[in-house]
Amino acid sequence: MQSAGSDKKSKRRRRFKGFCLFVLGIVFAIGAFLGINFGMAQVSSPEYCGSSCHEMQTAYQTWELSPHGTNHLGVRVECADCHLPSKDNYFHYTFAKAWTGAKDLAVHYFGPEYDVEATRKKVQAKFTNEPCLRCHQDLLVSPTGFDAMAAHQGLIDRPDAPENQCIHCHPGAGHERDSKLHR
Ligand code: HEC
Ligand code: HEC
Ligand code: HEC
């Protein structure tokens, strides 16, 4: 009788312990998720990207001068909007963000002296129209002039041609490098 009773009790205690662990696990998972998202928001702002190390100084200042850093709408297109995959795919975005961040850190501490011009060429060579098209979809509607419409029609016909890359015709879109401040 007695042993059956204590058996039941210890079973109940074990079950209770399991339940507590389960709840703790959920609380921990939620905490970690919120923490990651909060941290990500912090390290994704242009102010963080542009001020965290000297390598990014030119990029930050030239971005501020570009139509995406300053425009009449007061909209700021962030570094990540052009340099990372779309946020719609959370895991792809988060992974790319972590990878890029780690790479930048490694270069900062262990890499050779940062070369703006060389990096610019590397980024340029790999840059596609995809991030631009996330926001500029109505290329034939919004441009006011016929030359823009003609140029953009060519791009729609042959999107992969090198001369039809957005930054071929809009080289200062992300970074205004021709400004007197940065010559
Ligand atoms: C509208 C798209 C766009 C935005 C927004 C943008 N970039 Fe860029 N970025 C580019 C393109 C295109 C290039 C390559 C061509 C060039 O540099 O002129 C580039 C080049 C770079 C380079 C390599 C050259 C250099 O200056 O060192 C860095 C680093 C960089 N960007 C960081 C940033 C940071 C940091 C921000 C935000 C403060 C930012 N970018 C915002 C499109 C963008
Ligand atoms: C997150 C959204 C977003 C992305 C990504 C983006 N743009 Fe823009 N773009 C804007 C906004 C907002 C403006 C300012 C609106 C305006 O000037 O009418 C703008 C303005 C422009 C202009 C007009 C500049 C001027 O002088 O009036 C050009 C050209 C342009 N973008 C090209 C590009 C190219 C090329 C890319 C890719 C390298 C790109 N955009 C990426 C949102 C974006
Ligand atoms: C073959 C050259 C060429 C290519 C490639 C090109 N554009 Fe343009 N774009 C122009 C010209 C020319 C204008 C009109 C003059 C100007 O505003 O600079 C223009 C104007 C614009 C404007 C301003 C529209 C307005 O309201 O006045 C935006 C935004 C723009 N382009 C975005 C893009 C995007 C995004 C891509 C890539 C998907 C792209 N362009 C590719 C030549 C081009």
Which class do the helix and strand fractions yield?
A: mainly alpha
Count of the domains: 2
Oligomer: single chain
Coarse shape: elongated
Please provide the ordered H/E string of secondary-structure elements. HHHHHHHHH
- What is the averaged pLDDT score? 84
Low-confidence stretches: none
Number of helical segments?
A: 9
Strand element count: 0
Task: Say which molecules are bound, naming each kind only once.
Answer: heme C
**Alpha-carbon distance between the two ends:** 92 Å
Strand content: under 5%
Rounded Rg: 25 Å
- Please outline the major beta sheet: none
Task: State the share of residues found in helices, binned by percent.
Answer: 55-70%
Descriptive report:
The chain is mainly alpha-helical. Helices cover 64% and strands 0% of the residues. The chain folds into two domains: 44 residues; 133 residues, no CATH class. The longest helix is centred in the N-terminal third of the chain and has 43 residues. The termini are far apart. The structure holds heme C (3 copies). One heme C binds next to helix 7, helix 8 and helix 9.
List the helices and strands and how they pair.
Elements: H1 2-44, H2 46-51, H3 57-65, H4 79-83, H5 90-110, H6 116-126, H7 130-135, H8 146-157, H9 166-169
The structure holds heme C (3 copies).
One heme C is lined by residues 67-68, 71, 73, 75, 77, 81-82, 131-132, 134-136, 166-167, 170, 173-174.
